[in-house]
Amino acid sequence: MIKNKSLILHPPDCHELPDAKALQHALHQLRFIDAPLDKEANSYLAGDDFLQLIIFLGCSPSVELAPTEEDKPFCYIRFLQPENGPLLITSKHTNNPRCSSCRKEISSKTDVVAQWQKEKDVQLSCPECGFTGKAQDLNWRHSAGVASFFIEVNNVFPNEAVPSDELMSALRKMTGSEWDYFYYHD
Ligand SMILES: [Zn+2]
Fold this sequence. Notes:
This protein is of the alpha+beta class.
């Protein structure tokens, strides 16, 4: 359901479900998103201030923000709300999760994903320091995330771009919580 590479933003609590319509309206006002895309549900063209709100690092080549005749990949925004509640999204790029307390690796990502699929609230323990937490409490180093609502910015490579402080603080104001983000790359 996710495209091959993207930057994905989500609320910190995996059960938090923002009012999608209100959020889309606010993000439109912020000029993060523009008109809806015909081809794909819940998808929008990047708005006029997109490149101030998503900061491309280094000497990035010109970023495509609209469909081209040659069908080149371009950045657009999609809102995702999984039907069956919280979703743990990982990709080939995902690191093994680390303990949020002592930073040691908790277990392999494959094991954590398998356990999470059996039971979403599974408690995972750190073999090193005894810290216990759910999948969303682990330190995935911006390479995976658990949420019930995601904002996907398509066609961004891992670490190629980061959400600006302005975007993160706007999301915090809109929803009352501190958002997080990760990169998906398969
Ligand atoms: Zn630990």
